[in-house]
Amino acid sequence: xxxxxxxxxxxxxxxxxxxxxxxxxxxxxxxxxxxxxxxxxxxxxxxxxxxxxxxxxxxxxxxxxxxxxxxxxxxxxxxxxxx
Length: 83
Known about the structure:
- The protein has 2 domains: about 1-35, no CATH class; about 40-80, no CATH class.
- It has 6 helices and no strands.
- Helices cover about 65% and strands about 0% of the residues.
- Helix 1 (about 10-20) packs across helix 2 (about 20-30) and helix 5 crosses helix 6 (about 75-80).
């Protein structure tokens, strides 16, 4: 049986079109029935940014410099360093 994009419920068609119908079917087999959250691209890379901030801080860069470089508040930089 051949499944087409029109066979997929409307709320899922964009994802199926993006990944391809066959990949979408496999995805559903693997993860069907669970709720998934997909982070934004920015959120996805925050951990890398945070590691860079910690590294630069350990190398002697001050909070004010890091705040300007990463467009974050001094308080946000302190919280990242604290963790």
